[in-house]
Design a protein that fits this description.
The chain is 36% helix and 19% strand. The chain is an alpha/beta fold. The strands form two sheets. It has a seven-stranded parallel beta sheet, sandwiched between helices. Strands 10-11-9-8-12-13 form a six-stranded mixed beta sheet, sandwiched between helices. Strand 10 and strand 11 form a beta hairpin.
């Protein structure tokens, strides 16, 4: 069989998960990889046959998406042409991790497209939701990258065809220690904005990984550096706690490693609001914004040692197998 694995490249989580998904897919047939999006900081250690800017969301520096940059750097005409010419029908089926170009190309050509993503879990009526519904965010989840059947991942198994997170072998195999620092990954915030706020806690050592710097530098006990897969993973494994956005993979890995966790959902990101709702139910503290008036939230978190226990087994083989079975049944129809 010829399989296409299509991955969303806005952010690092999808590509991080793909590290373990690709070799399992290769057991079922010849597998090509397509990545669209322009905001990932890590590289997939496998050959990528197709790349595209796709429909990319660009992180801002004040806690949300940079709407102006997102609008300027996306071309509806170019995306339409990519969908029109994308060779989806060269494959028996497509396994799709919230990637829009291949998804819509499959819909146009009648190619079987199966979801394998976290976003699919958020569509379940049983998955936790924020108190305030975001109609636009909900619409985007439904229509950004439509698929047929879907296998999904979430912080807990809320519904059928839903698995707990894929914890990469890289993370599972790491030695977990506590060297006393706190790891920070808040891609929607400028590190220059974070420094004076986090420096308020004079006795705390922070490792800040930023999308907005190209070189490592120091500010008192704070270290700021570009995002590196190896260094970030190592920092998490040796940290006391993780302070991050309410994405999916980083909080899931922090929970798996048994670390204290504090999350801040991005403004205007319905997906992260859903994640924050789920994490809050689990007992993870959620901070509204990173601003001076919310520093007491960080202080309270630093003073406590609340850790949320989880049991995240190795689910990747089972999840991929189910996705492939969905595809095989879809082809028969």
């Amino acid at each position: 069989m010829k399989i296409l694995y299509a991955i969303q490249g806005t952010g690092n989580g999808h590509i991080a998960r793909a590290e373990d998904v690709v070799p399992i897919l290769q057991e079922y047939g010849e597998t090509d990889v397509f990545i669209s999006g322009a905001q990932a900081d890590i590289r997939l250690p496998y050959r990528v046959k197709y790349k595209s800017k796709g429909l990319s969301f660009y992180f801002g520096k004040r806690g949300g998406v940079d709407l102006v940059k997102t609008f300027r750097r996306n071309s509806a005409r170019k995306v339409y042409k990519e969908i029109e010419h994308f060779p989806a029908d060269s494959y028996d089926f497509v396994i799709n991790d919230f990637e829009p170009i291949s998804s819509w190309a499959c819909r146009v050509r009648g190619v079987c497209c199966i979801g394998l993503s976290h976003q699919a879990a958020l569509l379940s009526p049983l998955a936790p939701k924020p108190k305030k519904l975001d109609p636009l965010g909900y619409w985007i989840l439904h229509h950004y990258a439509p698929v047929g059947d879907a296998v999904s991942f979430h912080f807990a198994q809320y519904d059928e065809n839903m698995y707990t997170p894929v914890i990469r072998s890289r993370i599972r195999n790491m030695e977990v220690t506590d060297k006393g620092h706190y790891t920070v990954y808040l891609p929607a915030y400028d590190d220059k904005k974070l420094l004076p706020l986090l420096a308020t806690f004079k006795s705390v050592k922070w490792h800040i990984f930023s999308k907005h710097t190209r070189k490592r530098y120091h500010f008192g006990k704070l270290t700021v550096q570009p995002v590196s897969n190896e260094e970030f993973s190592s920092s998490m494994a040796t940290a006391t706690g993780i302070f991050c956005g309410a994405g999916f993979e980083t909080p899931a890995e922090a929970l798996y490693l048994g670390k204290k966790l504090l999350v801040v959902p991005m403004k205007g990101q319905y997906e992260q609001q859903c994640n924050a709702a789920a994490l809050k139910l689990m007992g993870v503290p959620v901070m509204k914004k990173v601003k001076r008036r919310f520093l007491s939230d960080i202080g309270s978190w630093l003073e406590t040692d609340t850790r949320v226990p989880v049991t995240y087994g190795d689910v990747v083989s089972a999840a991929v197998h189910q996705a492939v079975e969905f595809a095989r049944n879809g082809i028969k129809k």
